Amino acid sequence: MANKIIFPDNFLWGAATASYQIEGAWNKHGKGESTWDRFTHTPGNIKNNDTGDVADDHYNRWKKDIGLMKKIGLKAYRFSISWPRILPAGRGKVNQKGLDFYGKLVDELLKAGITPFVTLNHWDLPQVLEDEGGWTVRSTAEAFVDYANIVSRTLGDRVKNWITHNEPAVVTWMGYSMGIHAPGSKDYALGVCAAHHLLLSHGWAIPVIKRNVPNAEVGLALNIGWKAPASNSKYDLQLAREDDGKWFRWFADPAYGRGYPSDIVETFTKMGALPNGLDFVQAGDMDVIATPTDFVGLNYYSRQLARSDDPNNDPQVVFPKPNTPDNWTEMPWENYPEGLTGVLSRVYFDYQPLKVYITENGASYSTPPSEDGEVHDEHRTNYLRTHFAATHRAIQAGVPLAGYFVWSLMDNFEWSQGYSQRFGIIWVNYETQERILKDSAKWYKGVIKKNGF
Ligand code: FCB
C-alpha cells in the first residue's frame, strides 16, 4: 500500500441526494406537481418509463435513513428541497406540511451530529411555473427568490450551508435545449434564456439568504468534466474549449464577474441560439449574477474527449471507451481520477473561489447483493479511493477544499436512466425498500473515522 493519505482537520466527509431522486410521495400532503412529475408521467421520456412516484420512499423513511448516515459516520449531508412541496402553486401560499418535513429532517440530522447542506433547486420546478415559461422567463427567477426567502427564513436558524442551484448547465442544455430532461424542449435559444434566469435568481437569492441566516455560506453547484482534445489537432483543441465554454464557462464566468464568454456568444450566434442577441439581459443583471459567493461546489464524474478533425464524422465530444473494467462505470462514464485533480486546480487557478466543495462525485455499478446478503461493490470502492487520492493531491497543491460529498447516499432514480443506474453506497431494494450498506459504505466509514486511508 502506498503512503498514508491524511486529510486536513475538519474536512467534511459527506454524501448527497436530491429530492426528486429519493423522496417519492409525489402527491402527498399537499405537494404540487413538479416538472419531473410531468416529464416522467409522459411515456417514452424515461428508460422503462420509470418515475419518481415512490423512489426510495425517503419521505416516509427519512428517520431510518439518517440512522444509516450515522452508522457510516457522515459528517455532512447534502439534500435538496422540493420547491412544489413548499409552494404547490410555485409562489404564494405555503404548504406547511412540506416545510415541516424538512424541519424535522434538519433537526434529526443535527441530533445525529451531521451538518446539513441544503440545495434549493435540484431541478424539480413547480409545473405551474413551467406552464408560464419556466426558467425561460424572468418571473420564475422572481418566484425563486420568494421560495429561497421562505425556506431560509424557516431553516436558517439551523442550516448554515446553502446551494442555490444544482448544475444549471444541465437544466439549461439537457432540459431546455436537448429534450433529455424535464421540461423536454429542444431549442437552444430557450436554453440560453433559461441559463440567464437561473443565474439571475442565484444572484438575487444570495443577499436574501444572508439576511435570513446569520453566518450563512452560500454557493452554486456546477458540473464540470475534464474536457480534453482527442489529439493535438487544432480542431480538437478548439472543440474541447468550446464544449467547456458551453457547459462550464457560460455559468462560471458570469458568476465570477466576467460576463458571458465572448467566444461562446459567437458560437451561439452562429448556431442561431441568440436570434435577438442578449436581449434578455437587463441593466444591472450581470452585477447581480456576480454577487460574491462563499464557495463553489463542483460535481465531477469523468472526462470527455473532443474530436473534430475526422472529415467522415461530425464533431463530437464523447466519453472515451474503457481499456479495463476497472476504469469503466456503467453510465458509461470512464473512471478518470486525474481529471478531478485537474478540474480542482483549474477552477482554483481561473476563478480563485474562497472555498471549494466537491458537491458530487461517485460511480454507477449495479453490483447486487451476494448470497451472503452483502454487496461487494469493489469497483465503487476503487473509484472512490482513487478519487479521494486525487482530491488529496489538489489539497496539497493548495486548493482550499473543505469537503467532499459522495454521490450518492443511496441508489435512486437516475433521471432519464430511471432505476437502471445505481450510484448509492447503500443498496436499495425497490420492491421492499430494504436498505443494505454496501462494502463501499463500510470502507468509507473507515476513511471518515481515520480522516484518510
Ligand atoms: C448529476 C446530478 C445528480 C446525479 C448525478 C449522477 O448530474 O446532479 O442528480 O444524477 O449526476
Explain what you see:
By secondary structure, the chain is α/β, with parallel strands linked by helices. It is 41% helix and 15% strand. The protein is built from 15 helices and 14 strands. Strands 1-2-3-4-5-8-11-12 form an eight-stranded parallel barrel, surrounded by five helices. Strands 6-9-10 form a three-stranded mixed sheet. The chain has a two-stranded antiparallel sheet with strand order 13-14. β13 and β14 form a beta hairpin. α8 runs antiparallel to α9 (188-212) and α8 (168-177) crosses α10 (234-255). The longest helix is centred in the middle third of the chain and has 25 residues, at 188-212. The termini are close together. Beta-D-fucopyranose binds next to loops.
State the distance separating the first and last CA atoms: 10 Å
Give the helix level as a range of percent: 40-55%
Average predicted local confidence, pLDDT: 97
Largest sheet: 8 strands, parallel, barrel
Strands, helices and their partners?
Layout: E1 12-16, H1 19-22, H2 35-40, H3 58-72, E2 76-80, H4 83-86, H5 96-111, E3 115-121, H6 127-131, H7 138-155, E4 161-166, H8 168-177, H9 188-212, E5 217-223, E6 226-229, H10 234-255, H11 262-271, E7 275-278, H12 285-289, E8 295-299, E9 303-307, E10 316-318, H13 337-351, E11 356-361, H14 378-396, E12 401-407, E13 426-428, E14 435-437, H15 439-450
Parallel strand pairs: 1-2, 1-12, 2-3, 3-4, 4-5, 5-8, 6-9, 8-11, 11-12
Antiparallel strand pairs: 9-10, 13-14
Helix pairs in contact: 3-5, 7-9, 8-9, 8-10, 13-14, 14-15
